[in-house]
Design goal:
With 388 residues, the protein is of the alpha+beta class. 19% of the residues lie in helices and 48% in strands. It has eight helices and 18 strands. A hairpin with a 2-residue loop joins strand 5 and strand 6 (172-187).
């Protein structure tokens, strides 16, 4: 009886500890290349993109050195009216009342308001060895009204070492890869966030106090793995990301960040946190590769294992589907389009020797089904890259 009681107590304690963990989702860059294709191109990523996608993409045929890859995005429907409002806010011609009314409209429309950026660099060798560093930040305010809106801020720095290996079995080719990451995460509470309406009012009235904005911070380790297999131009693949252990986070404030008070950043804490694992499967078709006209099509689904137990497989499939296409012309012009969980996206890019420039307009689904709650935005990306 004592043994059964002890086991029961331990199980209850384990469940309590698991439920007490703060779950942090990975901060994925909304880079113009993938967002222009509906958020696809994670499973079939290549080179530098594989630091955020499938480590199997490290198995390339050439060396690639990314000196700098910079992306910036904004969550704002890119209408002429909205762009005009932003211009007035930036040049100072908008009144406080106008700003509050406009931001309230953006909240009510469910599009939300926010921005993010990523920067990084790395080496991906033709022998499949990859080393990189990345930094991604994302800040989003959302809610059904300005009064009830919340702002969630998340930033993560990563140091990554990966390896991939190609295998040829007759006409079938396979690439398998894995990487390990050490990261430092800074995050507002992902559940409660910060009261955005209050913050906006304080900023407009010059009474904003960064010391009131609490943050979590801590470091941890995670691993990613994946494979891609194909016959000729047809491909299928799978990747699992954020396979890591729980880590501890401590608290500090935004004022510490503003004051460059590095010593305030916690490297240990008492609050348990964990990255939420993600799984993605996909199908791809890349035709006439390395020619002057190279079309490709990709379809990827999030959490494919859950689809097998779904009671409405069609709805759940559309809710997790990222589909996109790219046409590469004359080895330097890229035209893209996609479907991101039921919403359209478009993009284009130029590859000029060692300089790459890309842009995209996208909408992503935040609700329970396609067309439920879309959030639109635009993304721009530039990279200095030697090799491909």
């Amino acid at each position: 009886m004592k043994r059964k009681a002890l086991i029961t107590i331990l199980l209850i304690a384990a469940l309590a500890a698991a439920s007490a963990q703060i779950q942090f989702s990975e901060i994925m860059p909304k880079d113009a290349r993938s967002m222009g294709m509906g958020g696809a191109f994670r499973v079939f990523s290549q080179g530098y993109s594989s630091f955020f996608g499938n480590p199997a993409g490290f198995a390339g045929s050439t060396n690639s050195f990314t000196i700098a890859d910079v992306s910036a995005w904004a969550y704002l429907a890119p209408t002429s009216e909205n762009l005009g409002r932003v211009r007035q806010i930036i040049d100072g011609s908008a009144t406080d009342t106008q700003i509050i009314n406009w931001v309230g409209d953006w909240m009510v429309s469910n599009n939300g308001l926010g921005a993010g950026a990523s920067v990084g660099g790395g080496w991906v060798g033709k022998k499949g060895i990859a080393v990189g560093v990345t930094l991604v930040t994302d800040e989003v305010a959302s809610g059904d009204s300005l009064l009830g809106s919340k702002l969630v801020s998340a930033t993560q720095a990563n140091g990554i070492i990966g390896f991939a290996y190609p295998i040829d079995i007759g006409p079938v080719w396979i690439k398998i890869g894995a990487d390990g990451r050490v990261f430092y995460r800074v995050q507002s509470d992902p559940t409660t966030g910060w009261p955005f309406g209050t913050l906006l009012n304080d900023v407009l009235n010059d009474s904003f106090s960064p010391s009131s904005l609490n943050l979590y911070g801590g470091y941890g380790f995670a691993a990613d793995a994946g494979l891609v297999a194909g016959i000729g131009p047809a491909m299928l693949g799978f990747t699992a990301r954020n396979l890591g252990l729980a880590f501890k986070v401590g608290s500090f404030t935004a004022q510490d960040v503003i004051d460059y008070n590095i010593s305030a950043l916690p490297f240990s804490g008492t609050t348990a946190a964990a990255l939420t694992p993600t799984y993605t499967a996909g199908l791809g078709l890349r035709l006439f590769e390395n020619t002057k006209f190279e079309p490709s099509v990709y379809a990827e689904v999030d959490d494919p294992i859950a689809l097998f137990s779904s009671s409405d497989i069609l709805t759940d499939l559309l809710t997790s589907l990222h589909a996109g296409a790219q046409i590469r012309i004359l080895n330097f012009l890229n035209i893209r389009g996609g479907l991101n969980k039921g919403w359209y996206s478009v993009g284009a890019g130029l590859d000029l020797s060692f300089l790459e420039i890309d842009a995209a307009i996208f909408t992503e689904e935040l609700g329970a089904y396609p067309g439920d709650k879309g959030r639109s935005g635009l993304s721009v990306q530039a990279a200095i890259r030697l090799g491909r």
